[in-house]
Amino acid sequence: MEGHGYTAHKQDYLKRLRRIEGQIRGLQRMVDEDSYCIDILTQVSAATKALQSVAIGLLEEHLGHCVAAAVAEGGDTADAKVKEAADAIARLVRS
Hints:
The protein starts with 9 loop residues before the first helix and ends with a helix. The protein has three helices and no strands. It has helices at about 10-30, 35-75, 75-95. It is mainly α. It is elongated, with a radius of gyration of 17 Å. It is about 85% helix and about 0% strand.
């Protein structure tokens, strides 16, 4: 298996993560400038949703590429990849 599932969209992910990084810097500025609590919380929510969107995209890529390839291979490798994906989903649901 060559590369990762997200490799074809790597630049898109980097662009989105840089945008999120800017949101986080904006949050720091808001706290530093004593902005209104609700305004900060609104921006925290937006940054959280943006990160969740990246996570879902990466998960879809992982399922479609890494897990699908492992399932086609079968055996212990398939079981391990499915378990790994299930654990990742559980972490996302808890966050």
